[in-house]
Write a structure and sequence with these properties.
about 5% strand; 6-stranded mixed beta sheet; single chain; Rossmann fold; about 700 residues
């Protein structure tokens, strides 16, 4: 099987091309670091078999970050037959810098210039570009199937043997190196001028040998090499490109969305609209509709089981199997809507602007601007978000970012907020949900600051950021994103959720002597819950079933609601019945006050994430920091819940809880705005090779 590497700058359309060529469905985003490890997929062109390797984005062959190191090593292993080098037409000069680095190493390159946007900076003459670089060039729309087929055909071409030398290298004086290393190839001299430590380590040089090599070259050797490359690129651009009067990434919308005074309010308004449509309006309508549909399907089966007069069998299917499945499926519309809106924000280019808005803030608490992508992904799934923390350049920043992901309220907690919060706060629950999301962010930033001044001090870090123009996403792409996430969600339901629900059911149905108890009295789960329950009395929920539901939530947060439904003997698809049951003192799971509910919701927000997230933390930051992270999460969850409960309880006694909650929301908003105004300074953003004006 013939291996082909897919190489290019971040945000050049590599993953879109990878998906189109191999018919895959990998995640795509308009930011640096979306792809953090290589992805492989086999495909056929006629009778020829290929494997395409999608590498993380890289700007040159002198790696500066984790993902660039991954790409660099893959290229240097020389196991591939050909490289497909993807370039973005609107950033052509910067993208071609990497092309020159690849050509210097003698790589067989198929250059694909991607027209990501309809409005382009350059009109490209591919024939002239081919003549200048002496390699095949194809102009591509990565989502056009006919053009993809043309590239497939070019892969069968014989290896391209360049006839023209890279003339700009003749202008560089390598004599200082040649006098010491006469038997070395040209690439050795280039890497020495580049001061490419990764290259020499890969070739087996010791740190001392590398140091001596770098002492031989001129002090400004990197500048000499870069100037030679860019001078050559200037000539190429002048010959092969006609420039339009267009600044890539510049938009009149940025005068509002990046305005110092309007940026944060705009961001919060957009989030509020998304939450309202997801959790109430449209989301609530379709959730009720699906719940009714599921009830129609399961009722006949349960009726047939009831005729068998076997209470264990009936309860097993009603509570354990159908219960867990129905609970999560009834929330599927809300999960779909959330991913739909997030995909629109990603593709539109707005998420990159959000990173720009929060770059200064994150820097003040010891994080990198790159952290914003990981933290934002945490609102979808903590597990996948933690994995992307590996693209942090600084080790301490990587650890902190991974530790903070669980504080971002993931989509698995939506059922908890909707069912439990909705029972006590009704339509006002939207403000509770927004408050929980904001609280998670505030707690995460506070912990990051504490860690930064104590255990995990981060050095100043570089953050490369470019703004793509605002774009309308295609419905085809939205469908792919939704289908992938829905599939992942349903697989989780079919494996972890039902398995855990069955375990919880068995623990609540049998004693330690394995005696079946239909009402759960004296069961193993009740015994464990009662043992731990007194520890939770100070935070407002001294109830064994509530504590047991929290324990079940360690496997997956969705299980919390299905566990409560099971304890209260209610069909898990009957969301309204679950909400009303926790208001009744006769129920097993019962909340005595709004203060208890607020405390419970805060604890669910902040305590230990699911086992999948813990497993990913072990993989990314190691056993030591994973254990420390879990201890911090439990401690913070308990302390914050204790504070919230006692403040809310006092306010509830005096009948001013709604007023207090409103005032706290306003104060939190004012503090957030002041915080941003304090740290977000006027900045300049790199757009292609030019700098845009300051946003006013």
């Amino acid at each position: 099987m013939r291996e082909v590497l897919l190489v290019g700058n971040p945000n050049s359309g590599k993953t879109t091309f990878f998906n189109s060529l191999t018919k895959s469905d990998e995640h795509i985003g308009n930011w640096h670091g979306v792809t953090v490890e290589e992805k492989k997929k086999a495909f056929k062109v006629g009778n020829d078999e290929f494997v395409l390797v999608d590498t993380p984005g890289i700007y040159s062959l002198a790696p500066l970050s984790f993902e660039e190191e991954v790409s660099f090593k893959l290229i240097e292993k020389k196991k591939h037959e050909k490289i497909i080098n993807i370039c973005d037409l609107n950033n052509l000069q910067r993208n071609l810098y990497l092309t020159l680095c690849l050509l210097e190493e003698g790589e067989d390159i198929l250059l694909v210039v991607n027209e990501i946007d309809k409005k382009v900076k350059f009109k490209l003459n591919t024939k002239e570009l081919e003549r200048c670089l002496d390699i095949p060039v194809i102009l591509l729309d990565a989502e056009n199937k006919k053009e993809i087929d043309k590239i497939k055909d070019r892969l069968k071409d014989k290896p391209n043997k360049r006839k023209k030398p890279l003339k700009y290298l003749d202008k560089i004086d390598f004599s200082c190196l040649k006098s010491h290393f006469k038997d070395k190839d040209l690439i050795f001299y280039i890497k020495a001028f580049e001061k490419n430590e990764s290259f020499f380590k890969l070739k087996g040089f010791t740190d001392e040998e590398i140091k001596k090599i770098f002492e031989i070259v001129p002090v400004n050797s990197m500048e000499i090499l870069a100037n030679a490359r860019y001078s050559f690129l200037d000539e190429i651009i002048e010959i092969s490109c006609a420039e339009n009067n267009f600044v890539y990434g510049q938009s009149k919308f940025d005068k509002i969305l990046l305005n110092k005074f309007l940026a944060l309010p705009c961001f919060l308004i957009i989030l509020s609209i998304i939450f309202y449509l997801t959790f109430f309006s449209i989301g609530a309508f379709f959730s009720d509709l699906l719940s009714s549909f599921l009830e129609l399907i399961t009722s006949p089966i349960l009726d047939a089981l009831s005729e068998l007069n076997n209470s264990f069998l009936y309860n097993f299917f009603a509570d354990a199997v159908f219960g867990g499945l129905s609970t999560v499926l009834s929330f599927l519309p809300q999960v779909v809507l959330l991913f739909f809106f997030l995909s629109l924000l990603e593709d539109s280019g707005y998420i990159t602007r959000v990173a720009f808005i929060f770059e200064d803030i994150l820097g003040k608490v010891g994080l990198s601007g790159k952290s914003i992508y990981t933290l934002l992904m945490g609102f979808g799934c903590s597990t996948t978000a933690i994995m992307t923390a590996r693209n942090m350049d600084n080790k301490n920043s990587k650890i902190k970012t991974a530790l903070l992901c669980p504080y971002m309220s993931c989509s698995a907690k939506i059922p908890i907020y909707t069912v439990i919060g909705g029972a006590f706060f009704g339509a006002s629950n939207i403000f509770v949900i927004i408050g929980l999301y904001l609280l998670g962010v505030v707690v995460a930033l506070s912990i990051s600051k504490i860690l930064d001044v104590t255990l995990l001090k981060s050095d100043n870090q570089t953050f490369i950021l470019e703004f793509p123009p605002y774009r309308w996403t295609s419905m085809k792409r939205v469908y792919k994103i939704l289908s992938k996430n829905v599939k992942s969600f349903l697989v989780k339901v079919g494996s972890v959720m039902i398995s855990m629900n069955i375990i919880v059911f068995l623990l609540s149905s049998f004693t330690f002597s394995f005696k079946y108890v239909e009402d759960g009295s004296g069961s193993m789960l009740e015994s464990i819950g009662k043992f731990l329950a007194p520890a939770f009395e100070p935070v407002g929920f001294n109830n064994w079933a509530i504590v047991s539901a929290l324990l079940a939530g360690l496997v997956a947060k969705e299980v919390v609601v299905s566990s409560i439904a099971m304890f209260n003997g209610i069909d898990s698809s009957a969301i309204k019945l679950i909400s009303s049951s926790i208001l009744l003192p006769t129920s097993v799971v019962y909340f005595a006050s709004k203060a208890s509910v607020l405390s419970f919701l805060v604890f669910c927000l902040l305590y230990t994430p699911c086992l999948a997230s813990i497993s990913m933390m072990l993989q990314e930051i190691g056993k030591k920091w994973t254990i420390i992270g879990i201890l911090i999460q439990l401690f913070v969850a308990y302390i914050v819940s204790f504070i919230v409960y006692n403040l809310a309880l006092g306010a509830e006694i005096f009948g001013i809880l709604p007023i207090i909650l409103t005032l706290l929301s306003i104060i939190l908003m004012i503090v957030a705005v002041c915080f941003v105004f304090r740290f977000v300074k006027y900045k300049k953003c790199a757009r292609c090779k030019n700098l845009c004006d300051k946003h006013k």
